[in-house]
């Protein structure tokens, strides 16, 4: 696959897949979810299994008539029942991606994380990967974890890195460049995550993550701005050319995400990884475009 560097190319690439991915949407009741469904159907990028938990306020029947065979509706008594039903559909292979509609995120995740009938296998780590199309940056930039893991342990950092690299490869990146973020380039026991970074770099050198460059600690500017690395005298294939930003905690990651979205006017996409199928849990405050690009990212990742 040719490397995908922007969201328009990403969404367009879905049309080249041999078959369309099927998305199970839990409580597709809000206007942004309606926008995503109608756009995906019109652009022929996905088909849908809509599990309605009584929250829908738009005409699903009209969509079914306009796109026969591409939309199936399953009624559920409550949002929680809808979540359990949709998760079961994904578990049984009837859908490739799970997507949140107007259901509360906590209610959806309760079904996803159910130990007996959920989508997270025992021993696996669930994490969030975000894709960012930022003005002035020549390619998509990925960030982890901005939404799920508060203070990553070494094992969680390892999983975060693996998932982000896997998503990068699903978009045609042969050798992803991963920056391990901190406020300085110094390793210190005062900041335990920097010690974890040293272990991640050792594992990367030994081939644990395949063909990849992993370096840090470094700050965001050094990771993404070539001049910053040159001024600091840092020689690394990651400096100024990062594909992935690994954040030390959820506060820094989420602040970066919200800042890029609001002040940086970046286009965003995100999904949960580590589950048996990608899960799209866009925030209620996210735009329809962001929810659509999130769905496209998840569909493409599920094709790997």
Number of DSSP E strands: 11
Helix content: 25-40%
What class, by secondary structure content?
Answer: alpha/beta
Sum up the overall morphology in one term: globular
- Could you spell the SSE succession in H and E letters? HEHEHEHEHEEHEHEHHEHEEH
Strand order of the largest sheet: 8-7-9-6-5-10
CATH fold descriptor of the largest domain:
Isopropylmalate Dehydrogenase
Output the number of helix runs.
11
Contiguous low-pLDDT stretches (5 residues minimum) are none
By CATH, the architecture of the largest domain is named 3-Layer(aba) Sandwich
CATH uppermost class of the largest domain? Alpha Beta
Largest beta-sheet characterization: 6 strands, mixed
Distance between the termini: 11 Å
Count of folded domains: 2
CATH homologous superfamily placement of the largest domain: Isopropylmalate Dehydrogenase
Residues in β-strands, percent? 15-25%
Rg computed from alpha carbons, rounded to a whole number of angstroms: 19 Å
Mean pLDDT equals: 93
Tell me what you see in this structure.
By secondary structure, this protein is α/β, with parallel strands linked by helices. It folds into 2 domains: 7-123 and 275-304, Isopropylmalate Dehydrogenase; 125-274, Isopropylmalate Dehydrogenase (3-Layer(aba) Sandwich). It has 11 helices and 11 strands. Helix 1 crosses helix 11 (288-302), helix 2 (31-43) crosses helix 11 (288-302) and helix 4 runs parallel beside helix 5 (105-112). It starts with 6 loop residues before the first helix and ends with a helix. The relative contact order is 0.17.
